[in-house]
Structures are given as C-alpha cells and as structure tokens.
Amino acid sequence: MPTVLRQAAEVEFHEELEELAKWDDRERPPSWRLSPWAVATYILGGKLSNGFEVLPKYIGSRRLIEIAISTLATDRALLLLGVPGTAKSWVSEHLAAAISGDSTLMVQGTAATGEESIRYGWNYARLLSEGPTRSALVPSPVLRAMEEGRIARVEELTRTPSDVQDALITILSEKALPIPELNQRVEARKGFSIIATANSRDRGVNELSSALRRRFNTVVLPVPETLEEEVDIVRRRVAALGRVLELPGEPPALEEVRRVVTIFRELREGKTGDKKTRLKSPSGSLSTAEAISVVTSGHALAVHFGDGQARATDLASGLFGAIVKDPVQDRTVLEEYLETVLKEREGWKDLYRACRELL
C-alpha cells in the first residue's frame, strides 16, 4: 500500500489512464493525453473493447461532463459552480489528470491568496544578488501550466480578493503573461487552460467581475438528483477511503449508508421523502461530501471501538456533528426531526435512540 495519505489522481488511477491511452484511437486536441471521448470515459466510467473496466469518478449528468470537456478543447476557460459537496474539486482534479497528466498545478483560493499565486513571485536572495533575471523568478502554477501546455486549477475562485482575480483577465484574453521586470512575456502553449471552481453560496464575498466571468464557460454541478444516485456516490467513496486508510473489515452496510443519505436529503430539502411533512433545514449544507465523512467516521468507530460492523451508535455522533453547526438553532432543528420523523419511522428506532442520547 502507498505510504502517502492521498495520491494525486494521475498516480492513483494511472492504470486506467494508461489503458485508455492504449486503446484511444480518436483525435486528440493539441497537447492532450487523451481524446475528449476517452476523458469522458475516464470521468464517467465504462468498459473498453478489451473488457477493461474504468470506474466512474463522477456520477451524474453525462451532458454536463461533455460540455466541460468540450469547453477545455476550445480557447475558453472552465468554471465549475455549485453548492458545497457537489464534487467540483474532484471533477476539476480528474479532468486535469486525464487531459494533462498532471493535476497538481493548483492555486488554492483564500482571502490571503496573493497575486503572485496567479502570476509569479521572486526568489529575493537571487533577486538581490543577480537583479531581475529569469532564474530569480518563481513561476506560479498558472505560469508553469502556460509554459508546459497543461491545465491549471484555481480552487474557490470567489474566495480570492478581486485584484487577484483580475490577474487572470490578461492571461485568459491574451493567452500570455507579461513580465515587465524582464521586458518579456510568456505565451501559453497549446493545451493550456484553466479550470476554476466556485461555491455558489459565496456570492457576495468576492463576486467575479463581468469581464472575468465572460472569459469562463460556466458549468453548474447540481446535487445528486435521486436518493439512489447519492447513495451510490457515498458507498463508492466510503469504500475507496476505507482502502486508502487501511480500515479493516467490510465498509458499512448499504442500508446504513441509505439512512444517512436519507436524513441529509430530507433536512437539506426541507421535507420528507414522501413529501408529506415539511421540515426546518439546519444552517449547514449537508452535502454529499459530508455524508461520506459521516459514514467513514462511523466505519472507523466500529472498527476500532466496536465489532467492526457500523451501527446506529457509530453513525449518530457523526450525524450530530454534521447537522448541529449552530448549537441553538440547529439543535432545535435536529430535535424536531427526531421527534416528528425518525421516532415514527419503522426500523429506525435504534438511530432515533442513539441520536437522542447526544442531545
């Protein structure tokens, strides 16, 4: 087993990428490792003509993924937009891995992200001794992607200050980055593009300017459409995380996964699955990613402090932590849900009692 906690997508799934490249006889855009068809197969999963099975990385609308891939085959950048936990970063990483063979050229957007993260910085020791030279320049991941004809990723773009966002305008419109200190400019090689992600709940934090937004093609990734679709996503990711974390035993039973996902969906949508009871929603997002975390935590509890089989008592603490972000408002929401829904639901009494004990 690997010693690193999390491998880059192109390392973890190198066998799939190599097999796809071997059987991919379709036309590839300049500098792409795979054709758009093969990239879609890698993301969405499928079976090759030789029987090799490619596991799905994203479960959802095929058309959305096709639009994202075709955008990157043009001169426009891609913006993946959605609520927390809709796999924006996951899709971004796998797109970069399949297209460029390198998903690590990434800028993490925060309130403290500086312009040098998008453009370039300087090695000040060399700058003082040599003056402004190319060897003293420290390229950003975006600049490296331009020089190498690869995909650069900018995570949580709307979390970065507006002046930092504006550094992308010249890059995306001119496909070049001026370096006035050297009287030079770096021109992007074919294959270069940018995939940015943004949380739709961050509107009003650092809104994208209209000039910058026009340079992106926006694809909105929705929450999973059906209960079964979301259960499948959570089940697959929990099993994969269990292997990486080397948690012994079998992953939690499908029925336990379904119960967690059902609770998340009902509270997120503000109504029960049968649409007969309206519910108050908590302050948190209750995303698919959080459901994966709850089930994985329950698995770890069962393995290390139980008999290895995740049960209601193992899942309850994770559910409580995911739902109750505000100790006053969210606690009331959870208590009402327990009394009006879980208490009356057949076969859920164990989960009701386990959650009540935490209130």
Tell me what the structure shows.
It is built from 16 helices and eleven strands. The two termini are 40 Å apart. It is an alpha/beta fold. Strand 8 and strand 9 form a beta hairpin. Helix 3 runs antiparallel to helix 4. The protein has a five-stranded parallel sheet with strand order 4-7-10-3-11. A two-stranded antiparallel sheet has the order 1-2. The protein has two domains: 9-220, 3-Layer(aba) Sandwich (Rossmann fold); 227-356.
Briefly, what is this?
By secondary structure, the protein is α/β, with parallel strands linked by helices. 45% of the residues lie in helices and 12% in strands.
Task: Give the helices and strands, then pairings.
Blueprint: H1 9-12, H2 14-23, H3 36-44, E1 46-47, E2 53-54, H4 62-72, E3 77-82, H5 88-100, E4 106-108, E5 120-122, H6 124-130, E6 137-139, H7 141-148, E7 151-155, H8 162-165, H9 167-174, E8 176-179, E9 184-187, E10 193-199, H10 210-213, E11 216-220, H11 227-244, H12 254-269, H13 288-305, H14 312-323, H15 329-340, H16 349-356
Parallel strand pairs: 3-10, 3-11, 4-7, 7-10
Antiparallel strand pairs: 1-2, 5-6, 8-9
Helix pairs in contact: 3-4, 3-5, 11-12, 11-13, 12-13, 13-14, 14-16
Stated plainly, the CATH topology of the largest domain is called Rossmann fold
Domains (count): 2
Characterize the main sheet.
5 strands, parallel
Termini separation comes to 40 Å
CATH class of the largest domain: Alpha Beta
- Radius of gyration over C-alpha positions, nearest whole angstrom: 23 Å
- State the total count of DSSP E strands: 11
> Mind telling me which CATH architecture of the largest domain this is?
3-Layer(aba) Sandwich
Major sheet: order of its strands?
4-7-10-3-11
Give the fraction of residues assigned to helices: 40-55%
